[in-house]
Design brief:
This protein is α+β, with helices and mostly antiparallel strands. The chain contains six helices and five strands. Strands 2-1-5-3-4 form a five-stranded mixed beta sheet. A hairpin with a 2-residue loop joins β3 and β4. This is Autophagy protein 5.
Length: 151
């Protein structure tokens, strides 16, 4: 059977087109290390994204860096233009103390972690913490270290 002939393709299309609003905050330890302050400049305290459910976190890193982190560090004076202190390969995301695996789609992670919300109301926007230092490869990348075998 061809997908185009599938009579119930509307739910599939809604899943494919689905988006999740995300609210990012920079981890305070990273802010202290990079800016010498846990308090970010006023317009940079949070960053909002609308992310496709079928996307992955690594695909967001360039946009986050270019539109939020680089301007924040430029304005704060903690870096010189063209000399970025952030590497996209070191960026990772956390939800309530749990590192989010990069090889799972954003929508799947949201459903797994936020589905059991008290009171039946989903957390929107989804509040995540962004880390830009100390990438925990053994926790996030499949096939790396003993921890990956246990997960």
């Amino acid at each position: 059977m061809d997908f185009r002939d599938f009579e119930h393709k509307a739910p599939l299309q809604r899943i494919w087109d689905g988006m999740i609003p995300i609210e990012l905050q920079l981890a305070s330890a990273d802010a202290i290390e990079l800016l010498a302050s846990a308090v970010l400049p006023e317009p940079f305290q949070t960053f909002y994204l609308l992310v496709p459910r079928v996307s992955y976190f690594p695909f967001m890193c360039m946009q986050i860096k270019e539109r939020w982190l680089d301007p924040m560090f430029s304005i704060s004076g903690s870096r010189t233009p063209g000399n970025s202190v952030i590497k996209e390969s070191e960026m990772w995301f956390e939800y309530r103390g749990q590192a989010l695996k990069w090889h799972y789609p954003v929508g799947l992670l949201y459903d797994m972690l936020v589905a059991d919300v008290v009171g039946g109301q989903p957390e929107l926007p989804w509040g995540l913490t962004l880390h830009v230092r100390k990438f925990p490869a053994t926790k996030l990348v499949p096939g790396v270290g003993v921890q990956a075998m246990r997960d």
